Amino acid sequence: MTQKEALDILKTGRSVFLTGAAGSGKTYVLREYIEYLKGLDANIGITASTGIAATHMGGITIHSWSGIGIKDHLSKSEIQEIAEKKHVVKKIAKTSVLIIDEISMLHHFRLDFIDKIIRTIKNSTEPFGGMQVIFCGDFFQLPPVSKVGDPEAYFVYHSDTWKNLNLKVCYLSEQHRQNDLVYLKILNAIRDSSVSEDIIKILKTRFNKKPIVEPTKLYSHNRNVNAENESELAKISGRTFEYEMQTRGNHNLVETLKKSCLAPETLELKEGAKVMFIKNNFEEGYVNGTLGVVIKCGFEQIQVKTLVGKIIDVARESWRIEEDGKIKAEIIQYPLRLAWAITVHKSQGMSLDTAEIDLSKSFERGMGYVALSRVRSLEGLFLKGLNEMALMVNEEVLEFDNKFKDLSKTNSFHIKTMGETKLNKMHQDFADKIKGEKPKEKKLDTVSETKKMLDEGISTKDIAKERGLKLGTILDHIEKIKEADPKYNIYNLQNSISKTKFKEIYNAFHKIGVSEGEKYKLAPVKELLGPKYSYDDLRLVRLFL
What would the pLDDT profile of 66-90 be if each residue is shown by its tens digit? Predict the structure, then answer.
């Protein structure tokens, strides 16, 4: 099925299981559909089974969203208790579309809990209270994790809820990540359980290859990763620079973001450190998993040279939890982490340029495919060993996957042969059903209006333009906001001025100095720097002193 066909099915309002191999474009389709829904002002629940996947989508975990937490057992009275919590009721009652990403890692019994809570709140006998539900993921990827003593965990397709939903399966068949056809053939052979001697021979050509650039090592456990990264960083001489994470919003949600996000609270770097980008930014030329080396560190300045030789001036990025278009929590940090090693779990959703993997160790069925599918190409793969189990997949998953392919082919045929008039009417009917009304906003005072726009991530120049005010007036407002709340986070405003300018002005203020308890004065700095910087430039930088 193509991405367009999947989007056409989603827009009809049917509940969908969106699947496909790594690199088939599942996340792209989700993002496109989310943007479409936002254009309708529909109420969407954007969730995932894990914190890492949730932050990639700008959402929260399904456990947090539904109120179930990490409980393994819920009695009728406990389900009723959750369904009476005001914040849960408020959220679920108005939701018309629920998205759950990385569905393979959600326990079957938890999906049934979530369904019961939603039906209780919506007072409905329909699965998920009649809302559209989109499950996204690939059952060949990571399975539900259970600790000793936990109830036995099965994939969600064993749940009663899955069986009752009558899902439309959209199995994406195009490949958008793997440009290496030989490697794609290998991954598909593992996935289809058709690994031949020829495939094994090709994989064995990657034994003990000497890489030009040191690859990232994939480990199963955090302790190995931390030890490797700390050891390698210590080998580099020179100063260690520390970059602290900035936060704002609800404390509990901020803590959730911290745990979910791959960005460290304190990013420790040296020039020469191996790093990977942990967010997509196509305009700047990097994606989640792009590798590079730090070539410059300084005050609010990091420069990275990627493996293909592109030099990137790295800016801080934001990870947010939003609800009804409002930012509930936000963390701001450079989108980097040390990359000598990473766990297989944390590499979820990444596309690594190079990776070193040891498949000789006791891999479970399917884990070999999970690890290998993180790498872009055969040339970027460095194997330390290989065993037969590593190339096997879960037979049950293979059986269900073949069923999903058949169902998807049928759905693809139906959507292709459906007349355009009928399809457009189905799209319009569902859009009318879920279309939200924009609430009438209370008129804010002028400073609060500026703060509201800052909270939405709008630049100072754009705020001034949109409000028909001078930039100086907007800076007046920001100064008042900072006086009222010195901890108010304005790090995004650094993007309003070049890093070189910022650094020069910042250093000039420190050179001139200030008496204790007084405010930094603009005139002496203006005199020192001359006409090349405006007073507005100086005022903007002064906000960070």
Answer: 988 777 788 888 888 888 888 888 8
State pLDDT tens for residues 329-347.
Answer: 888 999 999 989 988 877 7
By the 10 Å C-beta count (0-12 exposed, 13-18 middle, 19+ buried), 224 is classed as middle
Tell me the torsion sign for CA atoms 162, 163, 166, 170.
Answer: positive
184 and 88 in one domain? no
Number of domains in the chain: 3
DSSP-assigned letters across all residues of 403-445: HHHHHHHHHHHHHHHS-HHHHHHHHHHHHHHHPPPPPPPPPPP
φ and ψ of 248, to 5 deg: -160, 155
Range of the domain at 491: 444-541
The span from the CA of 213 to the CA of 275, in Å, is 12
User: Whole-angstrom Cα distance, residue 536 to residue 540?
Assistant: 6
- Greater confidence (134 vs 214) lies with 134
CATH (domain of 526) = 1.10.10.1390
We report the CATH number of the domain holding residue 428 as 3.40.50.300
Same domain, 424 and 468: no
Report yes or no on 438 lying in a domain: no
Please state, in angstroms and rounded to a whole number, the distance separating the CA atoms of residues 29 and 37: 12
Q: Which three-class secondary structure state does DSSP give residue 454? A: helix
Confidence of residue 146 (pLDDT cuts 50, 70, 90): low
Q: 73 - beta bridge partners? A: none
Asked if pLDDT for residue 443 goes beyond 60, the answer is no
